[in-house]
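Bench notes, bay 3.
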Amino acid sequence: MPAPSAWRRRAAPDHLIAGEDCDSYSGAMFESHFQTFTDEANGAHGAERLSRLRDELARLKLDGFLIPRADEHQNEYTPPSAERLAWLTGFTGSAGTAVVLPRRAALFVDGRYTLQAPAQVDVKAFELHNSGECAPDRWLEKQISAGWRIGCDPWLHTPAQLARYERAIKAAGGVLVRVETNPLDAIWRDRPAPPAGAISIHPPRYAGEGADSKISHVQAALGKADALVLSDPHAVAWAFNIRGCDVAHTPIALCFALLPAKGRPTLYVDRARLSEPVRAALSFLDIAKPEALLRDLRALGAARKLVRFDAATVPARLVQTLEKAGGTADVGADPTALMKARKNKAELRGAAAAHLRDGAAMVEFLAWFAREAPEGRLTEIKAAEALETFRRATKKLKDISFPTISGMGPNGAIVHYRVTETTDRKIARGLFLIDSGAQYEDGTTDITRTLAVGKPTVEMRDRYTRVLKGHVSVATSIFPKGSSGAQIDGFARRALWEAGLDFDHGVGHGVGSYLSVHEGPQRISKLGGVALEPGMILSNEPGYYKTGAYGIRLENLIVVAPRAIKGAEREMLGFETLTLAPMDLSLIEPKLLSREEIAWLNAYHARVRKALTPLVTPATAKWLAGATKPIRN
């Protein structure tokens, strides 16, 4: 999902529910830290920093350099010390690449950021390109001359990424040079220190399975491989039942691990990050300094071992080290990904509990919004702050699971909109979209609701209802075992297609268990080729976006579950909805809904009302009764 928020955290309004101080939960430090960083890293510095980088490249006898928005693990959320692209260019989006040459420099971003990038970057220093139309490797091939040396940091690219650049550079007669130290680090004088937060144990009551059992399952899945390198910190967290606080919004520790086909795993991390109780709980593995990983890979290479790597996250540097020493690299799928995606009974109980708690906080917010929005004093930032305050009042919030998308009117039509103090729009008549989530120790949430402020137009009601029809179609779908998300994707679009409409994002992404709000490999998308299995949690979020006017998205989290059908000849699956919060009845046109769709909505609202009424204030309970009343066509 989207990059870290660029709006500054403020004190909670006095009239909201009293909660803990913002700094009392783990996520607060990341918002304030990242804001300090992004205030400094703006486009005004671009030309000067670009000049310093070119001087450093000349000293290293390099004609160019690749700067991806990535850390050593290809994380969605990266620590401030890894935000090299933002420091150099001013661009703070979650995906992008810069290419610096002697006389030209370019920034490549995807379609989500074609509006954001020009607002943040000095366009006189960096030319901007849509990576979907002009890929950086193809651009580079046309710009360089024979004999040019283009540098890269092999810790920040996967082997497949570097292979694409190498082909393009070689075709132009140049050479790709893998540097030992990143030249940006030499000129970034006030670069923040890498994170070194404490590592904690994820309790068995939430994990549902011991680390020893998980390790045995992974070892059994290695086939002919002698070892597996865990380069994805989410995989390390899941396999060893640990959590960390190294990046915003996702409780992971940035570290690597080596899992042999037989014997004890090794976790590469500074021992100072492990308390005595945590070390005792991790007695099943060995602990080594982070730099020891290269030494151990050389030893495996010298012994001619076959080592499996995760193609999506492994730094090219690790594969290069093994192969140079004589080993064989098997770069492919990490077997932990599917294991992690299939939630066990304890994780599913935790998810239900987290959604019940989060649903109560969400309903308190919705009732508050219904009272406050007509007064005309709210803004996008104030609404986002309010929702976070209600979540903090649960006393269970660890962090928000991603920066809240809070968009009024035309801002809601920007799918990955990030409110800033510059763009902060007053909430007035029209449609307001809020997409948010929370991290609780027992589960991760993600919910989107679109709310009418004032009387909606006929068109708004038509579009909202068509999105709702798609949402219900996914929620009620039944499909044979082995079906993928690609086969479900069209269910969410049919009502929009019938009106000549569509949306450009996928219908749903996977969600972790007190881990990433974006978890693979499962997804509901045209590109979702992985079979959906019981226990997988996904989002269900069709939408519609009218550029310059408004956006609509309705998102619940759902879990894949078996479906018993009398006389069925095949094993069938379906979805159960986890999220609990009402849809906006004022935006629904009942005449567009079938009898079955109305029955689903009324049953869902009855479930929301029954589950949440005992958990909210009397005033909110009264509002909830009206917000969930049955409808008829």
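Next record in the batch:
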Amino acid sequence: MDTFSKRKVIVAGIMLGVGILFVLRLFTLQITNKTYKQFATRNVLREITIYPARGYIYDRNNELMVYNKAAYDLMLIPREVKAFDTTELCNIIQLDRKDLREAIAKAKQYSRYKPSIVAGQISSDIYAPLQEKLYKYPGFFVQSRTLREYPSKSAAQALGFVGEVNQRTIETDKYYKSGDYIGVSGLEKAYEKELRGIKGVQKSMVDVHNRIKGKYNDGLEDTTAILGQNLITGFDAKLQAYAELLMTNKKGAVVAIEPATGEIILMVSAPSYDPNLLVGRQRSKNYSILMQDSVYKPTWNRAIIGEYSPGSTFKLVNALIALQEHSVTPYDRFSCSGQGSTPIRCTHSHASPVAMREGIRESCNPYFWNVFRSIINHSPTAEEGYRVWRDHVVNFGFAQRVGTELSSERKGNLAETSYYDKYFGQKRWNAMTIRSLSIGQGEILVTPLQMANMAAIIANRGYYITPHLVRAIQDPNRVSHELEFEKKVIDIRPEHFNTVIEGMQAVIEDTKLQHTVKLDSVIVCGKTGTVQNPHGADHSAFVAFAPRDTPKIAIAVYIENAGFGATYAAPIAGLLIEKYLNDSIAPRRKDLEQRLIETDLLNVVEVKRKL
């Protein structure tokens, strides 16, 4: 073969090889590689996330406390967007042009092919005209979702709120993606997995005018959203709203527990706010305003994060510990005068000496100083005596979280012996050094929830069920599944409670509280507390339970800067007990009710001692 013929063969071989490469490449692109098919499909296929309705929240009487209302998100797929009238769209969705431009830029940065939210939580009123003109805006579509609605406008801090998920959560939980919503606080956060449900997906065919023409692949690839589960709580929604009314223009907290079950009947933190403020497109603005309120801190749940000295309400615990340790008997008497009464003195005059029942009734400081001293001195050393005393106090649920579902609950404070060793020096402190603990002052801080739990323990004569807000989870078929909670028996024998309860009954029936707390047909047992406050007017505290022998409610009221416990905290508790047990307030107490509602204690300098 000559040279020319060889060249022809070589050239032909090269051309044949190139041809084969082209054929193989075309085969790969058109048959085996799905990338370009997907790009083409994205022009006509739209994948829409179907958000399930979030679970409802009910009170103990099946009254709705939280439900849903319809809302919509305006979505954008940047690759499909064409020139459009920005002014008209902004007018329809009530969005500033600058905000729209920023939303589109953010969407392009996230992905040109995946949908992003341009305007979230659009109301039904805006959605109607938007849907009519959506064909004019290629690349835009609407995705439905639900927003929370709070009919009673109460229990804001306990129920919590829902907000947009942050990036950290998106990275750690595959359920969420940008623009999703999640429980941020309260029950919404604690039961997020139960409430949120399971998302569905709907794939639709879309024409060139941005109109949905039907389901993709006959809907075979669609999945159904599964509704969130409902929460059945122990709240009494009407009593909760009534308690918030009584706490108008006051700072503090109220907690009520059903002793037999541990269910929280009400949890009030004042000042509060309307939870509907944190729903919808104004949520961010309103949240910023609430968070910037450094004076009243309305978003704080003082019922579980407020740490206060318990004052004289704590004398009940000291009395029970002394009886258990046999350091005093119910009949031992201590005087209000003389060497044994110093350095703690009574704040008011009464017959002296007194035994335990009268000591509780009169809230006698010298009596309880002697009770506390007897506990500490009952052991060989002050350190050992203090450890015995402290162990009993912790057993009541103090200096620890008592167990509610709310993650923000605080423990309070109760000093260890190491604290006093460091502060005073080892073996250089004794009962006299730490005497303030005898009257609920000094190095002890408690939450209103812990105080209410203490009242429940006394009502139960020695045990409590872990306090909780939710009693049952209800599935989408409305089948309820009861939750179980631990029963905790404390280390005080049941018979020791009788003397303390008799004293608590005397507090209500043999003092001025018979005019503001005592009920005609129910025996109420309670204890007041006037808590010393170095920063201003004293705090008003009160704990109680009723009825005496078949307790249905245990309650704690704590009002900052309100003076004597008998002045404000006790009457408020009395009205709440009456409302809960009798479903109404007696006519003779209507004036008291009105005065309490109208009293403003937010800016107290001096407290009037009489109501």
